[in-house]
Amino acid sequence: MKHIYVISGFGADERVFSKLDFGDNDVHFIQWKIPEKNETLATYAQRLRQEILYPNPILIGLSFGGMMAIEIAKLIPVEKVILMSSIRDRSELPLLMKLAAFLHLTKIIPLRPFRILEPIENYNLGVETKEQKQLLREYRKNINQQYTDFALDEIVNWKNEWSPQHVVHIHGTKDHIFPIRYIKNPEYVIRGGGHLLSMNNADQVNEILKKELK
């Protein structure tokens, strides 16, 4: 039995993994924390890392959670890092995010959960069902603004150029957040898959997990 630590995407929780099968392994979900004032990504990763109590774990991260999994893997030995709808390093950031970082847009125009923007956000995330719309609406309603400002700024300004020795990248061809044209040689490509692979392409992801978690 392996110990698996799972990190959800931006502002989400373990419900986005409800359709995934991690086998007989011991699964732990790392919860997002409210960042401290002027906290760096490195110190934030150190705080999340404190929840990992077993040696040499497998880390699984969705979207921003995948980026955090890589940051945690810099701090401790891990057996493997599995990325879903995420990126390995700065070179895979889409051009618009790099431009936002260059222009400091996350500082100038802080993101707020406006209801009128939901259809655009849902399209970019690949939302397919009413249940998913309701879940994301709940996330937007409850998300902490300090966390939102921190996370968005860290995503577009991610400087990472390091990759763990054992990393598995699962990505969809219709991901609008991290378009696949920017992704370098992912181990698994899911045709037609959007950003919410863990929910809308769970059968295919489960087949991959069955292989990778042996």
3D architecture notes:
The protein is an alpha/beta fold and 214 residues long. The protein has one domain (3-212): 3-Layer(aba) Sandwich (Rossmann fold). It is built from nine helices and six strands, in the order ββαβαβαααααββαα. The chain has a six-stranded parallel sheet, with helices on both faces. α1 crosses α2 (64-73). The chain is globular and about 45 Å long. 36% of the residues are buried.
Question: Secondary structure elements and their pairing?
Answer:
Elements: E1 3-7, E2 26-30, H1 41-49, E3 58-62, H2 64-73, E4 80-84, H3 95-102, H4 105-108, H5 118-125, H6 130-142, H7 145-156, E5 167-172, E6 188-190, H8 197-200, H9 202-212
Helix pairs in contact: 1-2
Brief descriptors of the model:
214 residues, alpha/beta, Rossmann fold, six-stranded parallel sheet, 37% helix, globular
Short recap of the structure:
It is built from nine helices and six strands, in the order ββαβαβαααααββαα.
Number of domains: 1
Largest sheet: 6 strands, parallel
In whole angstroms, the N-to-C terminal distance is: 9 Å
Residue share in helix: 25-40%
Q: Beta-strand percentage? A: 5-15%
CATH architecture: 3-Layer(aba) Sandwich
Question: In sequence order, what are the helices and strands, one letter per element?
Answer: EEHEHEHHHHHEEHH
Can you tell me the CATH class?
Alpha Beta
**CATH-wise, what's the superfamily?**
Alpha/Beta hydrolase fold, catalytic domain
Shape: globular
Query: In terms of structural class, how would the helical and strand content be classed?
Result: alpha/beta
- Please, what is the average pLDDT? 93
Radius of gyration: 16 Å
- Count the helices. How many? 9
Physical arrangement of strands within the biggest beta sheet = 2-1-3-4-5-6
CATH topology: Rossmann fold
